[in-house]
Design brief:
This protein is α/β, with parallel strands linked by helices. It contains six helices and seven strands, in the order αβαββαβαβαββα. The strands form two sheets. The protein has a four-stranded mixed sheet with strand order 4-5-6-7, with helices on both faces.
């Protein structure tokens, strides 16, 4: 989220607001507040009861929940519903085994997941396994992320980016086609 926030503010020149909300547990992502402050982005700890304050982009960070707890997933679904219309981006650790990520997608799909973001690609040498998600789930991959440095290591997902991660010595041919709903045309 810090990388996406930095990209929005520094690269795109858009205004943003950030909500670091608690869930069943306390949201301890203090570094996110530090990045928000450094970027001049207001960081809020409580969701507004009325209209959202003005900004080009609104980011909400909620602490992770255990996918095996149907009660926690249901509570998260209710929380999101009470926030009004939101876009849910599921952030997955690419270094985890694929079976775990597939299970997370299956469970969290109940939250209205719009797309996927894969992180920790600096810890995963098997980028080829991400193609399993491209072909097997309806949610597109939106962003890829690697490393802890902000704002670097945050990219729009594309077939070229995945191919470069799979075969770094091969220079990609750019089509600027996202990895998404029209997967086959991305390669034509």
């Amino acid at each position: 989220l810090s990388k996406w926030l930095a990209r929005t503010v520094l690269v795109e020149g858009r205004s943003a607001r950030l909500w670091r909300l608690d869930g069943p547990g306390v949201n301890t992502a203090e570094a996110l507040s530090v990045y928000g402050e450094a970027l001049g982005v207001p960081v809020h700890r409580g969701w507004p009861s009325g209209a959202l304050p003005a900004a080009d982009a609104h980011f909400v960070d909620l602490p992770g929940i255990d996918r095996r707890s149907s009660q926690a997933v249901q509570a998260m679904a209710l929380r999101l519903q009470n926030m009004g219309p939101v876009e849910v981006h599921l952030v997955l650790n690419a270094a985890y085994e694929s079976e775990i990520a597939f299970a997370q997608i299956q469970v969290f799909r109940r939250l209205g997941v719009r797309d996927l973001i894969f992180t920790h690609l600096d810890e995963e040498a098997r980028w080829g396994k991400l193609w399993n998600f491209v072909w097997s789930v309806p949610e597109p991959i939106r962003f890829l992320s690697a490393g802890q440095n902000v704002p670097t290591g945050f990219w729009e997902a594309s077939p070229e980016r995945l191919l470069t991660g799979l075969c770094p010595s091969v220079a990609p041919v750019s089509t600027n086609a996202p990895i998404g709903e029209n997967r086959w045309q991305s390669f034509c």
